[in-house]
Design the sequence.
């Protein structure tokens, strides 16, 4: 069997023309799951603080391809990944084409590289040949249309819908980097093209390719640090412990499977070792080498007692899975509501907050982890609103883990929160005070994060007014209402001289609230904003809402001498008319409430 295997960067894949045959499975990657994780894993390896030449390489797996008679290659394995790469390149191209204020020379060079990757243009035939063609029926011509920037008019299949969702997910991901720093965005795109690598395996025929594919998938994944650690434990264990370690490893795998992390156990191992043993951030490509280093051997002690370390790993996996479930939940977790909140604020695929949580000794109670997570949620809020780079707080969390793992009891934890975490929260609050007045919906998207923040404000109002709280999922079910309507007509030019003046006002955070769908539908026709009648009509409808943050736009009084009235009088405000000044005033009101919600607790 003749087999060739080469490591190729994404940019070097332009040496091939790929065909995904019609017998292959359709595109099944989900935008919120597989695609987000694909992007986040790459971004986690990219370091915005480093020069490009100092960036590490990042390996994303392998692809098995077989040469055809026409010199193109059939994709036997890896089509989901290759399709996502092409979709990502299309999203990058679109982002670059609309990018303003960045280095034009770098932009044009990157666009040339991407276009050369996506297709080859035959000038004589005036024809573009894409480098990836999907032949399975569910794909139709969608990807080719996307590559060639042509309108796709056919009916969308489930596979096409997933590809569209993937495209939007990548564009949103890039947009968030752009909003932080355009130069960082350009460097990330270069990193994606040059430093992200995969192994291209080229057997001599389809029969050999299928045999390789079967062998790889029998193991479930290629050999990685997690597999190597397993072998390492067996190599140091006595034969009497073999059975026990096998059982523990299986139980650990089951724990990770139940939280949806079974396909990437290496991520768990990286965060666990960073939390419990290593000082500072540890990358996946550094992980195994550190474990077998002199320092790693001394700290972990697996050589002397591999069974004990296997048991510790299993306990860590159980805790990790519990926290993952809380992070991913759309409903408020019964034990760790703040971890659910972190998932909303830093996105559901966020994992960095697990480092300090995993660092706590097993002897700490659930209430201690809840207290720590409450303070981490406060940080998550300010990090998301202030648009702090993931790298910054991952490094901070890793440094805290070094200290957290040495704490012995609740009092020491409270002291740590007071001395270390509280000053960080207060520093981020200072940034928030200056930046939030200009924040808009676009700055805080995705929409589920916007709804979560509004829901937390609503819950705070209810709590202070001795009223029943609602679950997080309840607020996700509500409509995001723009008080000044998105579809405004007869816009007065004395208030909004330019179109963008109106649009800026519409999407300011102070113009947002939550509203039940039936009520929202009933006010859809209030679009004529030439006078104040539209707002009077909306206020009347808002009075029927069960969301007090919305009702108070009309009136801040409910009943007589109620706890709500007392709170509302001091903290909320109704409005007789609505415009730029009202929106700014409400944004200021929301800012004060948020400062009360997300503050240090110890």
Sequence:
């Amino acid at each position: 069997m003749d087999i060739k295997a080469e490591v190729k960067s994404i940019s070097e894949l332009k040496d091939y023309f790929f065909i995904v045959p019609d017998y292959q499975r359709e595109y099944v990657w989900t935008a919120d799951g597989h695609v987000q994780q694909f992007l986040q894993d790459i971004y986690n390896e990219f370091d915005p603080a480093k020069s490009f030449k100092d960036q590490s390489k990042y390996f994303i797996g392998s692809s098995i391809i077989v040469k055809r008679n026409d010199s193109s290659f059939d994709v036997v394995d890896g089509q989901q990944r290759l399709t996502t790469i092409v979709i990502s390149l299309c999203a990058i191209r679109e982002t670059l084409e609309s990018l303003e204020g960045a280095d034009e020379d770098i932009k044009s060079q990157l666009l040339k590289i991407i276009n050369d990757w996506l297709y080859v243009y035959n000038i004589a035939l005036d024809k573009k040949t894409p480098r990836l063609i999907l032949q399975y029926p569910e794909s139709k011509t969608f990807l080719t249309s996307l590559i060639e920037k042509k309108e796709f008019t056919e009916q969308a299949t489930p596979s096409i819908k997933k590809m569209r969702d993937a495209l939007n997910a990548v564009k949103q991901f890039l947009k968030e980097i752009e909003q932080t720093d355009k130069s960082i965005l350009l460097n990330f795109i270069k990193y994606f093209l040059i430093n992200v690598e995969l192994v291209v395996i080229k057997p001599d025929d389809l029969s050999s390719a299928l045999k390789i594919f079967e062998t790889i998938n029998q193991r479930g994944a290629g050999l990685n640090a997690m597999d190597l650690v397993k072998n390492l434990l067996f190599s140091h264990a006595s034969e009497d412990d073999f059975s026990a370690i096998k059982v523990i490893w299986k139980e650990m795998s089951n724990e990770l499977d139940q939280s949806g992390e079974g396909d990437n156990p290496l991520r768990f191992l990286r965060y666990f070792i960073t939390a419990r043993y290593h000082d500072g951030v540890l990358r996946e490509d550094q992980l195994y080498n550190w474990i077998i280093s002199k320092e790693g051997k001394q700290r972990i002690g697996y050589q002397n007692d591999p069974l004990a370390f296997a048991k510790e790993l299993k306990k860590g996996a159980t805790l990790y899975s519990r926290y993952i479930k809380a992070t991913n939940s759309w409903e408020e977790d019964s034990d760790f509501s703040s971890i659910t909140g972190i998932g909303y604020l830093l996105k559901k695929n966020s994992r960095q907050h697990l480092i300090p949580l995993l660092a706590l000794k097993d002897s700490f109670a659930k209430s201690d982890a809840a207290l720590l997570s409450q303070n981490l949620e406060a940080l998550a809020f300010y990090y998301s609103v202030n648009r702090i780079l993931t790298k910054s707080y991952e490094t901070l969390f890793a440094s805290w883990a070094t200290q957290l793992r040495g704490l012995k009891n609740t009092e020491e934890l409270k002291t740590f929160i007071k001395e270390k975490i509280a000053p960080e929260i207060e520093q981020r609050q200072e940034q928030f005070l200056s930046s939030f007045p200009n924040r808009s919906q676009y700055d805080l998207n995705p929409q589920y994060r916007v709804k979560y923040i509004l829901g937390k404000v609503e819950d705070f109002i209810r709590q202070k007014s001795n009223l029943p709280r609602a679950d997080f999922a309840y607020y996700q079910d509500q409509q995001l209402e723009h008080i000044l309507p998105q579809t405004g007509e007869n816009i007065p030019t004395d208030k909004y001289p330019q179109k963008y003046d109106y649009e800026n006002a519409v999407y300011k955070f102070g113009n947002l609230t939550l509203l039940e769908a039936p009520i929202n539908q009933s006010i859809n026709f209030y679009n004529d904003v030439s006078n104040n009648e539209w707002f009077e009509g909306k206020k009347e409808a808002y009075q029927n809402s069960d969301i007090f943050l919305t009702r108070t736009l009309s009136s801040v009084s409910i009943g007589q001498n109620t706890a709500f009235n007392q709170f509302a009088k001091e903290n909320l405000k109704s409005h007789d008319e609505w415009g730029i000044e009202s929106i700014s005033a409400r944004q200021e009101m929301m800012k004060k409430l948020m400062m009360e919600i997300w503050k240090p607790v110890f």
